[in-house]
Specification:
Number of helices: 8
Function: This protein is a positive regulator for the phosphate regulon. Transcription of this operon is positively regulated by PhoB and PhoR when phosphate is limited.
Strand order of the largest sheet: 2-1-3-4-5
InterPro entries: CheY-like_superfamily, OmpR/PhoB-type_DNA-bd, Sig_transdc_resp-reg_PhoB, Sig_transdc_resp-reg_receiver, WalR-like, WH-like_DNA-bd_sf
Main location: cytoplasm
Distance between the termini: 36 Å
Helix content: 40-55%
CATH architecture of the largest domain: 3-Layer(aba) Sandwich
Subcellular location: Cytoplasm
Strand content: 15-25%
Pfam families: Response_reg, Trans_reg_C
Order of helices and strands: EHEHEHEHEHEEEEHEHHEE
Length: 230
């Protein structure tokens, strides 16, 4: 995995150093910059596989730079994960609306960071090979396209498999129907929001057969959350 280059853009030296160490330990090749001007110079010489971008930066903000990159045909497909201390729902939605592929609210654990990076890289086709996502006794195998609870394999459709993959790599986070449509179905496909509800109901029924219906939770007024915590 050492051929996966990740550009870190973070102005706080301590966080930048921590992110560099975490990514190196995970087998990635990190390149760090303290602000957008330095990051732009790095881009002129190196095309990374993913950008880990702080929302608030001196000069040009991270979210503004992300917006510009996503409008540039040369960088439109370059995955971007925003790092933000902003926890408000409207800020998260704004981050995804400008084209960011994911967001992570500080503070976060190194394990979650690496899981989210790998999930975005898999979706973009930059990370190949069989991997398993494990939560409790749930195992999702992306190579064999299997979802199991204990030793029992669940009969899920391709869409429900992608939905579970997204949920399992983003546990305990609340997502609106629009966000789920963008992340699971894709931004280029027009599908009504109620389609999400239909697949959530099917997923709950399948999980309910194994006593796990409560894993997919409705957050009234916001959307859905996947959590092992009641």
């Amino acid at each position: 995995m050492s051929n996966i280059n990740i550009l870190i853009v973070e102005d706080e030296a301590a966080i930048r150093g921590m992110l560099t160490i975490v990514l190196e330990q995970a087998g990635f090749s990190p390149i760090a910059a303290a602000e957008v001007d330095s990051a732009q110079k790095i881009l002129a010489d190196t095309f990374p596989d993913l950008i880990l971008l702080d929302w608030m930066l001196p000069g040009i903000s991270g979210v503004e730079w992300a917006r510009r990159l996503k409008k540039d045909p040369s960088y439109r497909e370059l995955p971007i994960i925003l790092l933000t201390a902003r926890g408000e729902e409207e800020d998260k939605v704004r981050g995804l609306e400008i084209g960011a592929d994911d967001y992570l609210t500080k503070p976060f654990s190194p394990k979650e960071l690496v899981a989210r990076i790998r999930a975005v890289l898999r979706r973009s086709g930059k990370l190949q090979g069989g991997t398993q996502i494990v939560l409790g006794n749930l195992i999702l195998d992306t190579e064999q396209h299997r979802l199991t609870i204990g030793e029992k394999q669940l009969d899920v459709s391709p869409t429900e498999f992608r939905l579970m993959q997204f949920f399992m790599t983003h546990p305990d986070k609340v997502f609106s129907r629009t966000q789920l449509l963008d992340q699971v179905w894709g931004r280029s496909v027009y599908i009504e929001e109620r389609t999400v509800d239909v697949h959530i109901r099917r997923l709950r029924k399948i999980l309910g057969d194994y006593g796990k219906e409560e894993l997919v939770q409705t957050v009234r007024g916001f959307g859905y959350r996947f959590s092992l915590i009641d």
